[in-house]
């Protein structure tokens, strides 16, 4: 392997130019593409969200919980309470859970799926456990107080029936 002094000057310059083009090209793609954004990573560096993959499977109970919460929160964020949320509940939740949530909401005057009145700013779903025909997922909702930088979290335990893949229970964890 050649040292920098042994590498011809034109190769060193070509390599440096290529590096600038690659880095500059990525930077401009981030700056001009609204679908791509930069977010701080836990270690203090930045991560381009286009680098973060998202996927799922219609046969995974955990993915279906994530799909439900993602869609439900998107609709609330975009439109507030909306008939589409009712349709999402009908599609993803058991009939019994829909009735249970209606009763819970009448008593607590909050959205039973989110356990709050406002829309969370972030959500995360992870597998927790499974057995006896059920799968449990932990849903973490991140809330931000209006006018403040303070955030707090709500953790929910969401039960899915493995046979139907429908969400059959939502409880605070």
How many E strands?
A: 6
Helix fraction by DSSP (H/I, runs of at least 4)? 25-40%
Q: What is the CATH domain class of the largest domain?
A: Alpha Beta
Shape field? globular
Q: Label the CATH architecture of the largest domain.
A: Roll
| Assembly of the depicted chains | single chain
- Radius of gyration (CA) equals 23 Å
Q: DSSP strand (E) fraction?
A: 25-35%
CATH topology of the largest domain: Nuclear Transport Factor 2, Chain: A
On the 0-100 scale, what is the average pLDDT?
80
SSE order in H/E notation? HEEHHHEEEE
Low-confidence stretches: 7-39
Specify the biggest β-sheet: 4 strands, antiparallel
Strand order of the largest sheet: 3-4-5-6
- Structural class call reads alpha+beta
**Distance linking N and C termini:** 57 Å
* Domains, number: 2
How many H/I helices?
4
Description of the structure:
By secondary structure, the protein is an alpha+beta fold. It folds into two domains: 9-51, no CATH class; 61-172, Nuclear Transport Factor 2, Chain: A (Roll), CATH 3.10.450. The protein is 39% helix and 25% strand. It has helices at 9-32, 61-79, 83-92, 95-108; strands at residues 38-40, 46-48, 122-131, 134-144, 151-161, 167-172. The strands form two sheets. The chain has a four-stranded antiparallel β-sheet, with helices on one face. A hairpin with a 2-residue loop joins β3 (122-131) and β4 (134-144). The radius of gyration is 23 Å and the shape is globular. The N and C termini lie far apart (57 Å). Residues 7-39 have low confidence and may be disordered. Residues 1-31 form the signal peptide. Residues 33-58 are annotated as: Disordered. Keywords: Signal.
């Amino acid at each position: 392997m050649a040292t920098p002094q042994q590498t011809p000057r034109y190769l060193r310059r070509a390599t440096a130019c290529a590096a600038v083009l690659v880095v500059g090209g990525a930077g401009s793609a981030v700056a001009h593409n609204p679908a791509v954004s930069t977010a701080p990573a836990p270690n203090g560096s930045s991560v381009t969200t286009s680098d973060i993959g998202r996927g799922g499977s219609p046969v995974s109970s955990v993915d279906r919980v994530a799909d439900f919460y993602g869609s439900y929160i998107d609709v609330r964020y975009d439109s507030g309470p909306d008939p589409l949320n009712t349709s999402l509940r009908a599609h993803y939740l058991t009939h019994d859970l829909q009735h249970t949530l209606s009763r819970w909401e009448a008593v607590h005057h909050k959205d039973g799926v989110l356990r709050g009145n406002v829309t969370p700013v972030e959500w995360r779903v992870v597998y927790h456990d499974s057995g006896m025909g059920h799968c449990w997922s932990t849903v973490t909702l991140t809330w931000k107080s209006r006018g403040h930088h303070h955030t707090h979290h709500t953790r929910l335990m969401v039960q899915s029936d493995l046979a139907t893949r429908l969400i059959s229970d939502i409880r605070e964890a």
